[in-house]
Amino acid sequence: MRLDSPLFLFGLALIPLLYRYMLREGPERSAAIRYSDTDYISGSVAVKKNYFSTIFGLRTFCLVILILALARPQLEKGFETITGEGIDIMLALDISGSMQAEDFKPRNRLYVAKQVVSDFLTRVENDRVGLVVFAARSFTRCPLTLDYDILKSMLEDVDIGMIEDGTAIGLALANCVARLRESDAKSKVIILLTDGVNNRGEIDPLTAASLAKAAGMRVYTIGVGKEGGAPIPIVDRYGRKRYATNPDGSLVMTELDEETLKQIASITGGRYYRATNEQALDEIYKRILEMEKTAFEVRRFKHRKELAPYILPLAVLAMLFEVALVNVIWRKIP
Question: Is the pLDDT of residue 295 over 70?
């Protein structure tokens, strides 16, 4: 047997307070009849003692039962062996300006990526997941956690402009490696999503990939965007949208360094994927999750039976018994 909320047992400290209250508000303060000859009621002292001890006992019993019920006693019956799966995953998400490109419908690339990652979090179970965002720099948005609701909330607030523009793939990878380094999980995975070329940061992407390999981590890289790239929308200070242009007036198109992403995946034993639309991106995250599951066995109690419903009726019976004693056997004349 176990108690699910044992802190309620501190309520047993109320018993001495109940005793003091009953002494102060006991029968001697109740209505009484004055007699000129006390020999007639010489037996009342014994009655008074019986009254006090019985009522105090019943009330103490009720209090103890109520406190035990609040502590939620549970009977554990049997064991079961559950086969589960769990990995530690760091998600690296590009939030550079090029992620505003609108070749992913209904909105831009970042909007779709956030939706897909949010859906991905609904599929994970027993997996710790963290989030790193990057542009010209990289920072940890959420460390490894099992609280997917908190992670989703932090993901919703991610937006372009949080970091100076640029693409620091190497820094993002190194950040993820640092977050996973202390993990004791058998499977440690980094899923890096970007639509650009590494052009910022002090760490080369392939150097960061070597660090990940040395630490026993696999990196899955995802390049997003349609073949040939897409124009990059810019909103000016007046709220007007236009597209970035080169000095010669031509549109600036997004570029994707697929070769580097393939090398990162190859060095660490992961895979490279190209996503050209939302459906493809969603399928990629599903595939990665299926491949990375590592089976483990957990032995736990099969069933816990709540005992509170069985002991509460005892408190009710004790209260009814007290009412019967006070109003029938020890009934007082007003």
Answer: no
Q: Which helix (H) or strand (E) holds 317?
A: helix 308-324
DSSP string, 260-310: HHHHHHHHHT--EEEE-SHHHHHHHHHHHHHHH--EEEEEEEEEEEE-HHH
% the chain with pLDDT above 70: 82
Q: Alpha carbon 305 to chain centroid distance? A: 26
For residue 136, which amino acid is it? Answer: A
The continuous run of DSSP H or E covering 174 comes out as helix 169-180
Q: Would you list the domain boundaries of the chain? A: 2-31+42-77+303-329, 87-293
Q: What does each C-alpha distance from 268 to 86, 140, 263 come to in angstroms?
A: 20, 21, 9
Question: Residue 62 — very low, low, confident or very high, per pLDDT cuts 50/70/90?
Answer: confident
pLDDT tens-place string over residues 139-182:
999 999 999 999 999 999 999 999 999 999 999 999 999 999 98
The predicted model gives 102-118 an average pLDDT of: 89
Residue pair 285/91 in contact (Cβ under 8 Å)? The answer is: no
pLDDT over 60 (residue 267): yes
Name the nearest CA neighbour of 225 among 96, 66, 88, 81: 96
Helix (H), strand (E) at residue 199: none
Tokens at 326, concatenated: 């006070």
Domain 87-293 sits in CATH 3.40.50.410: yes
**Rounded to an integer, what distance in angstroms lies between the CA atom of residue 224 and that of residue 112?**
10
Residue 108 · residue 195 · CB < 8 Å: no
Amino acid of residue 91: L
* Predicted structure pTM score: 0.64
Structure tokens at 334: 């007003």
Separation CA 73–CA 63 (nearest Å): 15
pLDDT of residue 298: 46
- C-alpha–C-alpha distance, residues 292 and 148, integer Å: 19
| CA 214 and chain centroid, separation | 30
Backbone angles phi, psi at 78, to 5 degrees: 80, 170
CB 120 within 8 A of CB 90: no
